[in-house]
Amino acid sequence: GQQVMQIPQYQHVQEGEDFTTYCNxxxxxxxxxxxxxxxxxxxxxxxxxVKSGEVKKQKRLTFQFGEAxxxxxxxxxxxQTTDVGTYFCAGPSESNYQLIWGAGTxxxxxx
Amino acid sequence: AAGVIQSPRHLIKEKRETxxxxxxxxPRHDTVYWYQQGPGQDPQFxxxxxxxMQSDKGSIPDRFSAQQFSDYHSELNMSSLxxxxxxxxxxxxxxxxxxxxxxxxxxxxxxxxxxT
Lengths: 111, 116
Fold this sequence. Notes:
The structure holds two protein chains of two kinds.
Chain A: E1 4-7, E2 10-14, E3 19-25, E4 32-37, E5 44-49, E6 55-58, E7 61-65, E8 71-76, E9 85-92, E10 99-101, E11 105-110
Parallel strand pairs in A: 2-11
Antiparallel strand pairs in A: 1-3, 3-8, 4-5, 4-9, 6-7, 7-8, 9-10, 9-11
Chain B: E1 5-7, E2 10-13, E3 19-24, E4 31-37, E5 44-50, E6 53-57, E7 64-68, E8 74-78, E9 87-94, E10 106-107, E11 111-115
Parallel strand pairs in B: 2-11
Antiparallel strand pairs in B: 1-3, 3-8, 4-5, 4-9, 5-6, 7-8, 9-10, 9-11
């Protein structure tokens, strides 16, 4: 079945270092969405990418959608403690209105 | 801005009991989704409703049922609860769908269900 794979599962960084999570779909996606879930919180929508090769920025966050619309990445520059949480990518199912979620990448700031 | 409201926020039940979770979507959102999230896991889609009709079904056990009412609020009914049902249950809503583009989902704060 349709799958969205996300790596790494965890990433430990020092505050100020960069962070990147990668998302790969088994099928071409019409769009990809990114969500952030803080510890103990709920997923919060960050952004949606629709066009092939699209790049969008939100302050220190850069989102990319691959040319083939099968992969995506989220890069955070100079991480801060407020960035801690799990970042999920999600793409629409081919057959219905569901979102197929990646397993998430947990950003952990080393003390 | 209005957000998705869920109640109760916390619920403790015993095995074999029933539970009802409520969700009030953002006004004018026409789709409601229910998710179950275990510790360290991604949200698992349970069921969704579009304009008060069930639109999709995911990994929802037969012991669970849900509906959406005329005022668009939704309820998830869970019967014969098992220890494994302990999880966070999220409701999300999304605005009207445009052909070819799926809109973002706005999540409620969740209901933490503990089955003892």
